[in-house]
Amino acid sequence: MSGSLLLQSLILGLLLGGLYALLAAGLTLYFGVMRVVMIAHSAFLILAAYLAWFFTTQTGLDPLLSLIITVPLFFAAGYGMQRALLSRLRPATLTMMSVLLTFAIALIIEGGLGYLFSGTQRRIQLGYSSASLELWGARIAVVKLVAFGLAAVSLLALYLLLKKTRFGQALRATIQHREAAQLLGIDTDRIAGFGFGLGLATAAVGGTALALDATIYPSLHWHWIGPLMAIIVIGGLGSIPGAAVAAMLLGVTQALLQIPMGTTWAQTVFYLALFATLMFRPQGFFGGRLAQRF
Amino acid sequence: MRFTKTPTASKRSRATLAAAAAVTLASTLAACGAAEEGGGDDEIVIGISLPLTGDFSEPGKGIQRGYEAWAEYVNDNGGLLGRDVRLEMLDDQSSAERVAADYEKLINQEQVDLVVGPFSTRLVIPAAQVAQDYGYLFVEPAGAAPEVFEEGFENLFYAAPAVADDHYKLLAEHILAMPESERPKTAAYASMDDPFAQGTAYGLKDALEEGGIKTVADEVYPPNTTDFSSIAAKIADTKADMVVGGSQYQDGVNLIVALQQLDYQPKLAAFSTAPTETEFAEAIGDKTQGIIAPTGYTTKADYPENQEFVKFYEEKHGEAPGEDEANAWTTGQVVAAAVEAVECAEPDPDCQSKLIDWLHENEVETVVGPLSWDDKGRPQSAHMIQQWVDGEIKIVLPEDQAEAEFVYPKPAW
Questions:
Q1: In terms of CATH architecture, what is A3-119+128-292?
Q2: Who's near B58: CB < 8 A, 6+ residues apart?
Q3: What is the pLDDT of residue A1?
Q4: A205 with A157: CB under 8 angstroms?
Q5: In this predicted complex, what is the ipTM?
Q6: Distance between CA atoms of A152 and A146, rounded to whole angstroms?
Q7: In angstroms, what separates the C-alpha of A28 from chain B's closest C-alpha?
Q8: Are A259 and B224 within 8 A, CB to CB?
């Protein structure tokens, strides 16, 4: 194994980890806000990727511009979904029933995409798809760097929003103690809806970042949901910084393990880490009491 | 579910949702088969079970279109041995259990004169077993994986140019014929963990290793892999002179882009399947320069049989035939050649074994060129090699079919 391959793999791992962090952020947020397991999150990622692809093939413009449409659209869809569907589930069985409900939504999205765009595998044709920068002999693909940048900006924005704004305070209050938040005059139902919308808005950004450097097809989301679930459990359910750190660690570990072990075995790192977490620290590595997870 | 109307069918009618579709199709079929009563001396009935629903329904329907077009063509041109050809088609729903039962029924109850094969390895093997038990000739349009030829079938013939391992045969010969100084010295391989895709890459690997070209990377990835950057990094790190991908579609495309992102510039890059798909150029734009792919069928091959097939098919369907349609048509041609030569098409074992023996000893002119088989039914021909030249995919090998010169070393991508 050469030093340059090691450096190259490290860079690829960091870039991949950044993408994982962005894709997992929404998933952990839904759980934090509402104790909802959102199986359809990855289906929404693929939906956003398809919208970016469709936008680019129709207009010829850069897929990143599709964010102007998809982010507000997904926010509204998330708000609507929470208010119209998820809030109607009985609190006692919310977590379990939300799996069923969002599973159905994932199937509807997959079927709809197949119906509209067929099962043909698509890829956005970009002038800069194979462009790269050199760094000490290693190569950094521009598309991967853009995706990483999107992840960094979105996660930072999300963090600031939750920490520094009144809406963020209200959202965190809702997460920590819904009844106490209500007593303080917070409209927790609306806040929960906004929280869900926020999660889905990250799916719009994540899906677009994914579409820059991937071939997409309607059933691709099944491939993503497993690793993303593993990331948020390892990071601590509900913790966005936890998910981000777990994503980076797993991305780098996966890329480095591929050198000696090959692709098939390197994939298992997610599940091994998941087993280890559940055995030794079931609350996840960054999840203390739920109340302190932000 | 049945697709033709015969007296037996109406007695055993099934209340399935698809019945309506069957009736529509049956009337189409009846139009090309002369007699609806079935089984007379004035027609040859060919039994087929196809995956018209389920996992393989897309290629299954392609095969169906090919068979139907072939039967129509034969009947337009005076039939076989002066008798009309009628296709008796069943739907096996892509299930291996059903396909065996279907052929059992076709041979035993319907007493069809001939049978031909379904789509894909998983269905071909059980179907061929039934045909073998009854001594029937079994020519099949799809089922290229090595397993098909390891079951000891004596009645099976694969109606395509080559089995998976031989897809790159012409490329291997071409590379090894280069002067020692120009030849690539090292090669990197990446293949999907799939018998067909791996067969293509490893067939080339074995041939090149024997010729002294060193293997410097050999990566296998599971079919669900979508991120190829790490595999690409390992290949790029070896600086191999050539790279070979045992790919299907998305894996091939993603690997090519990942290699480009690392600015890896091999002298030769060959990938199976992906580069021949229409979506390929749309996905990676103008960065296709010099990419090589083997292909079992192209409408551009100038065998006279092929020109006629393309013309007939385009007139009927308004679009060019694909590989599935061509493979079904080839199957028909192979059976027809044997029938015309030994002048019989009956269920009795004597006639069937004459047909089998004839195909073992003779060569047949088809839309994919002349075909002959070894004793296990492996076709002895080779896939054509295509290469992307100036934004178009063109035949470069064999030389007598070439539309463009083989470009080596390949231009930067």
A1: Orthogonal Bundle (1.10)
A2: none
A3: 61
A4: no
A5: 0.87
A6: 10
A7: 23
A8: no
